[in-house]
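Our consortium's second objective concerns turning raw sequence data into structural hypotheses that experimental partners can test. To show how far this objective has progressed, the report includes one record in full. It was chosen at random from the queue rather than selected for favorable results. The single chain below, 317 residues long, was entered without modification.
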Amino acid sequence: MKPTKAPKAIRTVRDAAQETTNKIIAALEAGTVPWQKTWKGVNAGLPRSLATGKPYRGVNTFVLWFEGAAKGYKSDYWATYKQISERGGQVRKGERSTDIVFWKIIEKAEKTDGETRIKKIPLLRLFHVFNLDQADWAPGARLPKIEPVIEGEEFDPIATAEALVAEYLGHGPSLAHGGNSAFYRPSADHIQMPEFADFVSAEAYYSTLYHELTHSTGHESRLAREGVSKGTFGAFGDKVYSQEELVAEMGAAMLCAVAGIEQAATLDNSAAYLAHWIQALKGDSSLVIKAASAAQKAVDKILGTTFDNNNQEGDES
């Protein structure tokens, strides 16, 4: 009897997750935390798909942010070689692509004991994309339209940062100020923050608030994430703690990008902190992808965004 081959989708899931995790581990070993976006100016907005114009989602957001900042790309748009060619561009010789993941849930009908049941199969694949700055563009090329800045109009990122979460707080967790620590208490569905004046900057205040707000989406009345919904985040170093803290950090980064503010680091980036994440990711290649997906759902919950859950990471074209 011939050995049974593993389904292609399962092999693809394993390979794509491992390759993405390897990149993030390499960044951590170099002393950089890819999910903390503490720069502005270069690639400061959410990375977007040239094909759809929509922001990438989940772990792709962080992979492309990090790559864009490391290479100094000014464009937020990314596309496959084919998509760039179709729009009048030519990727320059020698340019290297960046790998992103696309995953969705495929539903397959299976008959068992005369009953038809729907089996959900995860499909995860790698796609190779280039930043628009890596290509030369012919006259008349179909490039994204950049909205001109209207003279006299001023963008107030701090006002935007405050307005961003006003509706969520209106029917979400309670929020109070005072004391010298920031935390979310699941049992009371309550966020406690130090006074605004106690933070070194408005950006630091909102980065911290966004971190705690992301935690609050895990409450049993909302997304019911493990750990938060049970009233405890676990202890430093355990699996539940690692994933929930990663979710909160990624959620804060996404919200800062939407608000247009620079994210301030909310966790200690010490050698012990970096070593913890390196060990956690080496022990579970799916951790960063799961956490990024959960962070995206948390941000969607805070912003009131709806999205097709069958396609978790964006356009596969």
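The partners drew two points from this record. Residues 8-303 form one domain. Residues 176 and 273 are 29 Å apart (CA to CA). Both points have been shared with the crystallography group to help prioritize constructs.
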